[in-house]
Amino acid sequence: MTRDPATAAASRQPPTMRDVAAHAGVSPMTVSRTLRDEPSVDRVLRERVLAAVEELGYRRNDWARGLRGGGATGLLGLVITNLGNPFYSQLATGVEAVAAEAGLQLLVGTSADDVARERGLVAGLVSRRVEGLVVVPAGTDQGHLAGSSLHGVPVVLATSPASGLAADAVVVDDFGGAREASRRLFLEGHRRIAFLGLSHETWTGQERRRGFTAGLAECGLEVDPELVVTTPAGDHDADTTLWRLMSAPRPPTAVFAANHRGTLAACRWVRSTGERLRIIGFDDIATAPLFAMPVSLVGYSPAELGRRAAELLLERVRGDVDDEPRRVVVATQLSHHGHVDVPA
Amino acid sequence: MTRDPATAAASRQPPTMRDVAAHAGVSPMTVSRTLRDEPSVDRVLRERVLAAVEELGYRRNDWARGLRGGGATGLLGLVITNLGNPFYSQLATGVEAVAAEAGLQLLVGTSADDVARERGLVAGLVSRRVEGLVVVPAGTDQGHLAGSSLHGVPVVLATSPASGLAADAVVVDDFGGAREASRRLFLEGHRRIAFLGLSHETWTGQERRRGFTAGLAECGLEVDPELVVTTPAGDHDADTTLWRLMSAPRPPTAVFAANHRGTLAACRWVRSTGERLRIIGFDDIATAPLFAMPVSLVGYSPAELGRRAAELLLERVRGDVDDEPRRVVVATQLSHHGHVDVPA
């Protein structure tokens, strides 16, 4: 909601960027761009903005101050699925770094991949009047995060785009990273390539599977449904899946694992059998250079994911952007550990 | 401070466990033990407690209700040194599990091993009226956590005991785990055994070094000061330390690393040289079974550390214990990965 500038002046509250935008008849984004001296701003709009800034006595520092004043709690909420998973704890580190820089304190809750728990956590954080929320969603639908349930608290999703609501999201290039991996395996000469999927269907899991299939399709190879399996939670169950897959009449010569759980299960199979199996996995593993078997990994920075999400959120909290939901995609890199045959 | 039971009755507040204790002339701990039906309570004291419970109309459920009522914020504060380090994120998971069970929300901040930042975070959390604090201290003195600075907010330290204040603490058996490791290396026949220490002196680092030295002293071996080094942060600098150590005229045949940073540096040295070096390290490494080289690890459960710390804290918040500071020690286990020669 935009306050009337005259009302703002009367109540002696410092004018906000939204007041400037309303006064100049432009979007808050245009005000922001003008104040950052971005060359993309139309000259006429630019002059209208600067005139409004002068008339209202707007000062840029008021943004940050506005965050803390007027009943602001100085709290940001973060809901992740599991703090014990290094990806989410590194993501939390990125969110916390940006929050700390802005003088905000982080309220953290974990949903344990349970949508009902996520709902309860979000409601609890909103009732504590957090100024914004970063959510790593547990399920595939986030309708319960829609504006009305949040009483206007802005939300940014991390790792998965918004489904069932209009919200900013920061995601990994899951499709592109998986596509690169499967193409790579084809180019190395593999034709029996297995896909080790996530045990519960998430947007991330779907994208990685789509990317895997698309990469092979570009090479003219169709995916054999017998080679598509999911890796259950728990080392023992994951190992059983690998043994079953590798004991089939026509076992794969290579696997692409959609997350580190599958990668580690494949590595354990190699370790205990001494057999050859080419492995590429999604997600970095810090100790992979010390592994007894070669492995390639599709990596990205979870901390960057968290930083970007917190940055988008702070822009929302400051009312510094249009309503249009934004999506930021974090790139992946394929790295090789141990001696991997390079395709000719 | 113990409220007078008569005053409590007059003000119509439900009596607390402390009121019962004062009325019966026993410690709150004795009240707690009696209500839990623990057999260790003296029969006479037990009857006095039960009489006081009846006279005051004390009900056990009031504890939990007391947590949420009377201006209680329902917030617990957690200050850790680094959320990106898997040990601290697992510790946080343990704290969060206990907090969530009690209906409390966790406020998390990271000090980046900086005492000044820790001070600021603690002051910020106290000003947000957290009901209690779990702190993984950054430095060796915690005088700034003394009661007066915290306005009575109870604090429990994790990983290191309180120094400069009287507070509960949950620590790992750093001394015992290191002592077991160095004795083991001696019994395997090693006489040139290096110690890879932490780069900054913490209580944990001191205890692990004391345990290492004590274990060897019991075997009649004195530590050669040339074999005692510290492992700097950053893989490159840690690797340089290892190369220097191993290039000495009389290099060690075994190393004990006081944390996973030193363990990984030693493993990288073995990986890149192909030389033999017996390695035992403090701290579990989940992927160690996949390593190309044998390694033994002194492990413990960081999540248990967090759970125990949160449990002690909730007892303090509920006024359910004596003032005497308590210390809980979490045990370690030595595990072996890869083929390690067993001493005869």
CATH topology of the largest domain in chain A: Rossmann fold
Report how far apart the termini of chain A are: 60 Å
CATH class of the largest domain in chain A: Alpha Beta
Shape of chain A: elongated
Oligomer: homodimer
Helix content range of chain A: 40-55%
Largest interface in this structure: A-B, 33 and 33 residues
Q: In terms of per-residue confidence, which ranges of chain A show pLDDT below 50 for 5 or more consecutive residues?
A: 1-12, 61-70
Number of domains of chain A: 3
**Biggest sheet of chain A, strands in spatial order?**
2-1-3-4-5-11
The helix count of chain A comes to 13
CATH superfamily of the largest domain in chain A: Response regulator
Listing every helix as H and every strand as E from the N terminus to the C terminus, the arrangement of chain A reads HHHHHEHEHEHEEHEHEHEHEEHEE
* Secondary-structure arrangement, i.e. CATH architecture of the largest domain in chain A: 3-Layer(aba) Sandwich
| Average pLDDT number of chain A | 86
DSSP strand count of chain A: 12
Rg measurement of chain A, Å: 24 Å
InterPro entries (chains A, B): HTH_LacI, LacI/GalR-like_sensor, Lambda_DNA-bd_dom_sf, Peripla_BP_I
Pfam families (chains A, B): LacI, Peripla_BP_3
Organism (chains A, B): Auraticoccus monumenti
Protein name (chains A, B): Transcriptional regulator, LacI family
